[in-house]
């Protein structure tokens, strides 16, 4: 009787489990695997090539010289390489729209995953608001604010981004493909024209290596100059991790994710290193415009215009004889802003959806349309983005500034989470008796790769306070720099206190291949 009762109890539990799973699936629905390899490549490239490359690259050369800037970007490139390999291994093994939130929950702890997920969501939700502000400022280059109020442009762009994401994931994929393609074409054109000018084929005599030997070049301001660029170069590559989010809606992830991981890294590195090298050959680090483009106040129409007209891209295009170079660069920058906003809406929506699927957010956000779009999560994300944008229009915009500060280090927190999750994933994989040959894609350099990336990210995070520590210390400034880190730690610790979730031991980690 005891045995029969036990069997009956198990069967009942199984039936309940199946029923609950079915209900959950019905309520949550499924995303569609409609993204292809070309979409995956461009999503990551588009996320990493932003206004920073077009406007701030000159400042890196002014601060560290051409050699110092190349060295700093090369070092960051190594870090990103390790991170992409780590993410590629996990995303190929278990493609999930929650990506690093899912991996952190399974391999580190549920509380760590909870904090990672919400950190990534609010980072990109706030970024969407920042892009709306920037887009309105760019439009003032063509249409003055007294003709069309800036908020109308922002509202229109938000509606546009919502429409791109509201119907199918393919709509996002195609739009982002072409947004990113415009940026890629601009960078390739810059590199080609730059090389022609370096060899004296276009734009006058060849500058040779003259700009690499002027003054303190090629390494300006020594070690601290390189470290200064290293501290900001990492921000330029943020967005490459979007591959992990998009993997959950990509067809044939075992083939496409590793391919995209490798291809995207090398292409982005080529674009950044190539652009820095071209600028270093054509413009001396003492060129006043280099610093002006990087330090101009882009929160105003006048400041953005100054940044664009003194951008090294604009200067090179003008020397190559391209008419209306400033207008062309404004159009490219507007495309970059819309691309970043489009990607931000997509990844934050998918992260909110994933959190809801994991019961870490209201279950309403796990519902999807028949076309596989988590519409409730999309609406909520756009409303939060709109609310954050509204704070920029209230008073002096102090609330908006603090919101932006809260997202300042979120990207590096995500990267550190990826590295640590991969380290724990591989340990769990071996502890549970699996052979590495079972992995569809194996990241090289383990365990050194993720640990080096983790350490380098930590250096960047700590180094953000370098200037205020070396000068007059300001607690308010220190707090504003690390607000995002404090917020992340608060969410992590708070969730752990409330739920008492333990850390995941390697033997107990969930190594199932589906989220």
From TrEMBL:
<feature type="transmembrane region" description="Helical">
    <location>
        <begin position="120"/>
        <end position="142"/>
    </location>
</feature>
<keyword id="KW-0472">Membrane</keyword>
<feature type="transmembrane region" description="Helical">
    <location>
        <begin position="148"/>
        <end position="168"/>
    </location>
</feature>
<comment type="similarity">
    <text>Belongs to the amino acid-polyamine-organocation (APC) superfamily. Amino acid transporter (AAT) (TC 2.A.3.1) family.</text>
</comment>
<dbReference type="GO" id="GO:0015171">
    <property type="term" value="F:amino acid transmembrane transporter activity"/>
</dbReference>
<keyword id="KW-0812">Transmembrane</keyword>
<feature type="transmembrane region" description="Helical">
    <location>
        <begin position="264"/>
        <end position="283"/>
    </location>
</feature>
<dbReference type="InterPro" id="IPR050524">
    <property type="entry name" value="APC_YAT"/>
</dbReference>
<dbReference type="Pfam" id="PF00324">
    <property type="entry name" value="AA_permease"/>
</dbReference>
<feature type="transmembrane region" description="Helical">
    <location>
        <begin position="180"/>
        <end position="202"/>
    </location>
</feature>
<keyword id="KW-0813">Transport</keyword>
<dbReference type="InterPro" id="IPR004840">
    <property type="entry name" value="Amino_acid_permease_CS"/>
</dbReference>
<protein>
    <recommendedName>
        <fullName>Amino acid permease/ SLC12A domain-containing protein</fullName>
    </recommendedName>
</protein>
<feature type="transmembrane region" description="Helical">
    <location>
        <begin position="400"/>
        <end position="423"/>
    </location>
</feature>
<feature type="domain" description="Amino acid permease/ SLC12A">
    <location>
        <begin position="39"/>
        <end position="503"/>
    </location>
</feature>
<dbReference type="GO" id="GO:0016020">
    <property type="term" value="C:membrane"/>
</dbReference>
<feature type="transmembrane region" description="Helical">
    <location>
        <begin position="222"/>
        <end position="243"/>
    </location>
</feature>
<feature type="transmembrane region" description="Helical">
    <location>
        <begin position="373"/>
        <end position="394"/>
    </location>
</feature>
<feature type="transmembrane region" description="Helical">
    <location>
        <begin position="67"/>
        <end position="84"/>
    </location>
</feature>
<keyword id="KW-0029">Amino-acid transport</keyword>
<feature type="transmembrane region" description="Helical">
    <location>
        <begin position="444"/>
        <end position="463"/>
    </location>
</feature>
<feature type="transmembrane region" description="Helical">
    <location>
        <begin position="475"/>
        <end position="493"/>
    </location>
</feature>
<feature type="transmembrane region" description="Helical">
    <location>
        <begin position="40"/>
        <end position="61"/>
    </location>
</feature>
<keyword id="KW-1133">Transmembrane helix</keyword>
<dbReference type="InterPro" id="IPR004841">
    <property type="entry name" value="AA-permease/SLC12A_dom"/>
</dbReference>
<feature type="transmembrane region" description="Helical">
    <location>
        <begin position="331"/>
        <end position="353"/>
    </location>
</feature>
């Amino acid at each position: 009787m005891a045995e029969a009762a036990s069997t009956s109890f198990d069967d009942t539990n199984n039936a309940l489990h199946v029923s609950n799973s079915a209900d959950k699936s019905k309520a949550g629905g499924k995303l569609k695997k409609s993204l292809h390899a070309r979409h995956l490549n461009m999503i990551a490239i588009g996320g990493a090539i932003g206004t920073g490359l077009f406007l701030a690259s000159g400042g890196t050369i002014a601060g560290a010289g051409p050699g110092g800037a190349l060295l700093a970007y090369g070092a960051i490139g190594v870090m990103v390489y390790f991170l992409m390999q780590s993410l590629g291994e996990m995303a190929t093994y278990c493609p999930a729209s929650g990506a690093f939130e899912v991996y952190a929950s399974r391999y580190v702890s549920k509380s760590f995953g909870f904090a990672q997920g919400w950190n990534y969501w609010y980072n990109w939700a706030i970024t969407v608001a920042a892009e709306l502000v920037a887009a309105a400022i760019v439009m003032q280059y063509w249409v003055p604010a007294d003709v069309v109020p800036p908020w109308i442009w922002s509202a229109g762009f938000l509606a546009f981004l919502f429409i791109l994401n509201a119907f199918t994931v393919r709509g996002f994929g195609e739009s982002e493909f072409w947004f990113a393609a415009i940026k890629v074409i601009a960078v390739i054109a810059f590199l080609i024209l730059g090389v022609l000018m370096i060899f004296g084929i276009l734009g006058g005599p060849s500058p040779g290596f003259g700009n690499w030997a002027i003054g303190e070049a090629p390494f300006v301001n020594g070690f601290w100059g390189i470290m200064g660029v290293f501290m900001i170069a990492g921000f330029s590559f943020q967005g490459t991790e979007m591959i992990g989010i998009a993997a959950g809606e990509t067809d044939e992830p075992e083939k496409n994710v590793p391919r995209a991981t490798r291809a995207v890294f090398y292409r982005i590195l080529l674009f950044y290193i190539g652009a820095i090298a071209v600028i270093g050959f054509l413009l001396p680090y003492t060129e006043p415009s280099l610093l002006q483009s990087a330090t101009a106040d882009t929160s105003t129409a006048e400041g953005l215009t100054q940044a664009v007209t003194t951008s090294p891209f604009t200067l090179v295009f003008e020397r190559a004889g391209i008419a209306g170079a400033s207008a062309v660069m404004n159009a490219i920058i507007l495309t970059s802003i819309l691309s970043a906003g489009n990607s931000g809406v997509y990844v934050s929506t998918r992260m909110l959806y994933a959190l809801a699927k994991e019961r870490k957010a209201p279950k309403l956000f796990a519902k999807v349309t028949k076309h596989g779009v988590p519409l409730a999560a999309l609406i909520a994300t756009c409303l939060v983005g709109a609310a954050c944008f509204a704070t920029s229009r209230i008073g002096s915009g102090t609330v908006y500034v603090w919101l932006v500060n809260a997202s300042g280090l979120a990207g590096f927190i995500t990267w550190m989470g990826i590295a640590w999750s991969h380290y724990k994933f591989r340990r769990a994989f071996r502890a549970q008796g699996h052979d590495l040959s079972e992995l569809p894609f194996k990241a090289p350099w383990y365990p050194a790769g993720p640990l080096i990336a983790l350490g380098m990210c930590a250096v960047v995070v700590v180094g953000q306070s370098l200037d205020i520590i070396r000068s007059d210390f300001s607690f308010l400034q220190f707090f504003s720099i690390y607000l995002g880190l404090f917020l992340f730690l608060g969410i992590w610790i708070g969730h752990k206190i409330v739920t008492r979730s333990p850390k995941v031991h390697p033997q107990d980690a969930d190594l199932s291949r589906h989220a």
